[in-house]
Amino acid sequence: MTRNKPNIWKYSLSAVKGIYDAYAVSMINFLRKPVTEEYPEYKRPLPERSRGRIILTRDPDGDERCVACYLCSAVCPTSCISMESAEREEDGRRFAIWFRINFARCIYCGQCEEACPTLAIQLTPDYEFCQYEVLDFVYEKEDLLVDHGGRHPDYNFYRHAGVTEKGDKGAHPDEEEPVNLKSNMP
Ligand code: SF4
Ligand code: SF4
Known about the structure:
This protein is α+β, with helices and mostly antiparallel strands. It has a domain at about 55-160: 2-Layer Sandwich (Alpha-Beta Plaits). Helices cover about 25% and strands about 15% of the residues. The chain is built from five helices and five strands, in the order αβαββαββαα. The protein is elongated and about 90 Å long. One iron/sulfur cluster binds near residues 72, 118 and 120. The site of one iron/sulfur cluster has 12 residues, from helix 2.
């Protein structure tokens, strides 16, 4: 039985080609214009939907949007949101007496924002809030509450949910007239 001799030339050529390819890639990148961005002198603009620091927003009337429904807290996979609810004496509107987010545990998944029925809680593109002390990542309501509506400046949950005014039935501001069941007209 005869054994085939290994083709030394073939293996040598592929080894040389491999070395040449590696050097070629290095040289191409060596001569290319650098792409390094000098942070923090240059801050790359982030997409509007980037998920960073969380805020609690207000409706167009300046009221707090959060009605302390606990949905964000319930859906949060890291259980980093906690609050206590109360009702306003004058109109029974719910609000959070205190509202706390532990950013040391938050994974910026955005599920709290998805769950929020009032668009109160929103993630922003702001990622610059490093701290030396881990407890400084615990943000209270006064740290989270802003004086604007964030991404949805015109939305007012109470108006869309149907506000009861002076005993009348509430209505959605964009609500259409009820369908006349006794008419065949579209
Ligand atoms: S972004 Fe995710 S982890 Fe962070 S508070 Fe919201 S639900 Fe929790
Ligand atoms: S932020 Fe939104 S989901 Fe969370 S308690 Fe307030 S209203 Fe409910």
